[in-house]
Specification:
Blueprint lengths: L1 E6 L4 E5 L11 H17 L3 E6 L4 H9 L3 E11 L9 E9 L1 H5 L6
Parallel strand pairs: 2-3
Antiparallel strand pairs: 1-2, 3-5, 4-5
Length: about 110
């Protein structure tokens, strides 16, 4: 799990999770997202986390939703497709957000 793009002025950040292929489908991403979110909310005072997920990444959508994240919409052509900067295509990213109260609502139960 990575928490990045921290914006202290607006008390928000972005969260990502990656699970080794052999370990996927066991709830580890959901649990890790909830644990890291709780840490960011309680330890850092972050008020909002967003998971930016490619629309076809169904596993991450499931994990984030199970962790309590809520789909807010889609950023169209949000970032370049390739890491090298040579790829001119851009990808859409779905925005799933989590607020401290969403953890209290029982989303996912880690």
């Amino acid at each position: 799990v990575t928490i990045s793009e921290l914006d202290w002025e607006h008390s928000r950040g972005e969260i990502q999770a990656w699970v080794a292929p052999a370990m996927r489908g066991r709830g580890y991403a959901r649990a890790a997202l909830r644990i890291a979110a709780r840490w960011a909310f309680d330890g850092w005072g972050v008020a909002r986390l967003a998971a930016l997920v490619e629309p076809d990444n169904l596993a991450m959508h499931r994990a984030a939703t199970a962790a309590g994240f809520r789909h807010e919409g889609t950023f169209k052509a949000y970032r370049p497709a390739g890491r090298s900067g040579k790829d001119e295509r851009r990808v859409d990213l779905d925005v799933l957000s989590l607020l401290p109260a969403d953890l209290e609502d029982g989303g996912g139960q880690a």
